[in-house]
Design goal:
Elements (H helix, E strand, L loop, with lengths): L2 H7 L5 E2 L3 H7 L3 E6 L11 H12 L3 E6 L21 H15 L14 E4 L1 H4 L4 H7 L6 H5 L2 H10 L6 H4 L1 H16 L1 E7 L3 H15 L4 E5 L12 E2 L2 E2 L9 H9 L3 H10 L5 H13 L5 H14 L2 H15 L4 H6 L2 H7 L5 E4 L6 E2 H8 L6 H9 L3 E3 L2 E2 L6 E2 L9 E6 L3 E7 L1
Helix pairs in contact: 10-11, 12-15, 12-16, 13-15, 15-16
């Protein structure tokens, strides 16, 4: 596969430096992409860049994921209006290891082929560089005029940031250029990949390589991913959609992709999966025949949930979705692990009861200890009308005896009042 053509049809090509495609067609090429290590998980805002590396390796080239331990201690002004918090080395190392585990799901680090992926940390070659040496060996090759002309710098200087641009951040593009130079010299890395906001930093690197060692280096950027309504991609009301299940459960992750608009799904399935052009065209055609079935969203959510989490997590997420929105059974509900159960029913009314509530009639539990119903009369009437379910099983008598065997995961009880009103009871 031709990498540039692959990016082009997938809608993942924004800028490309002259001569890049010729370089890639000439030989196996090494490219790197920088990843901010300020958290111990990637979020879906990182995914376009990570998928660039994945496609790059699939095209027979060698990807390097660079964790910015040194640059992460400074903060990149590109697209930012505030300076970042600076992290200590122990935190950065922890974050690096966590990110490596996530990247292993996208890239092959263990192959014995020459294009096996590598992970590097720029802190390793930057930490011992003395300031005077850096100023003399690197700083002299790039003029202040050249650095000032960058859009990211101009925006910060022209009032986007409340506190202006610190010298620390101003040096960021030099440090990123130094990374490119180091990888060019030590890893024969001739290409840098990144988001469109990184174009200025990338070109500083290619310029430094040209001036310092008379080398030829190249750059490619992917576009900033947005939603069809123009809103920034990857954010929800509760914040970032993370790849780590501790921050975003597989169920919520799956639901995010399942709920994207049709127009977005057509773009996202090209960007965030490895499905072929022909496969995607067939799925899109099927989807357009019956958009209400959301075949496109379901396939998108399936592919990316399996890639980031696992097939088992996908199955659990699908099962959970049917419990909330379909006619799922009590048996299916009992298959859910506690993490998924709590994720599915996050936000529904939640009652905590003491363990002594584990014996007695349901009507006492659901009117007194966990007041799902305002009165016993209301509950009896709804039970008679067939509108009360406990753990997805219809209750035939309000006087039914409740005991611990009914609990989900040994501690939860799901009560459904009518078609849509759910309540979760947790026994402490």
């Amino acid at each position: 596969m031709d990498f540039v053509e692959e990016l082009t049809w997938r809608g993942m090509l924004h800028n490309i430096m002259p001569g890049t495609q010729e370089q890639l067609q000439k030989e196996m090429t090494t490219a790197y992409l920088g990843i901010d290590p300020t958290a111990d998980s990637l979020h879906i805002g990182h995914l376009c860049g990570v998928m660039m590396l994945r496609h790059f390796q699939a095209c027979g080239h060698k990807p390097i994921a660079l964790v910015g331990g040194a640059t992460g201690m400074i903060g990149d002004p590109s697209g930012k209006s505030l300076e970042r918090n600076l992290l200590d080395e122990a935190t950065l190392r922890h974050n690096q290891e966590a990110i490596k585990k996530q990247l292993e799901k996208f890239l092959d680090f263990s192959s014995d082929q020459p294009n096996a992926a590598e992970l590097v940390n720029n802190y390793d070659w930057t930490k011992d560089v003395k300031f005077l040496d850096f100023a003399r060996e690197i700083g002299k090759h790039i003029t202040v005029n050249y650095m000032m002309a960058k859009d990211s710098v101009q925006k910060r200087l022209n009032g986007e940031a409340r506190d202006g641009l610190s010298f620390t951040e101003f040096t960021y593009q030099l440090l990123q250029g130094f990374d490119f130079l180091h990888l060019y010299q030590h890893k024969n890395c001739k290409l840098q990949l990144g988001g469109s906001d990184q174009w200025g930093n990338i070109t500083t690197g290619t310029e430094l390589i040209r001036r310092k060692v008379q080398g030829e280096a190249y750059g490619i950027t992917c576009p900033l991913i947005t939603k069809s309504d123009g809103v920034k991609f990857g954010k929800t009301e509760s914040g970032n959609v993370w790849l780590d299940r501790r921050y975003t459960s597989p169920y919520k992750f799956y639901q995010f992709w399942l709920n994207v608009a049709d127009e977005d799904a057509e773009r996202y399935i090209k960007i965030f999966t490895s499905l072929s052009r022909e496969e995607i065209a067939a799925i899109v055609e099927e989807h357009r025949k019956a958009p209400h079935l959301r075949l496109l969203q379901k396939r998108l959510a399936e592919e990316i949930t399996v890639m980031v989490h696992s097939r088992e997590d996908l199955d659990m997420a699908v099962e959970a979705s049917s419990i909330l929105f379909g006619g799922s059974t009590a048996e299916a509900l009992r298959k859910l692990d506690e993490e998924t159960l709590l994720s599915v029913f996050e936000g529904v009314p939640h009652f905590d009861v003491e363990s002594d509530a584990l014996s007695g009639k349901l009507i006492d539990l659901l009117t007194e200890k966990a007041p799902v119903f305002s009165s016993k009369g209301e509950m009896r009437k709804m039970v008679q009308n067939g509108g009360v379910f406990v753990n997805k099983s219809k209750i035939s008598s309000a006087d039914e005896i409740f005991d611990s065997s009914m609990l989900l995961n040994g501690k939860h009880l799901l009560v459904q009042k009518g078609k849509k009103n759910y309540f979760l009871i947790t026994v402490k």
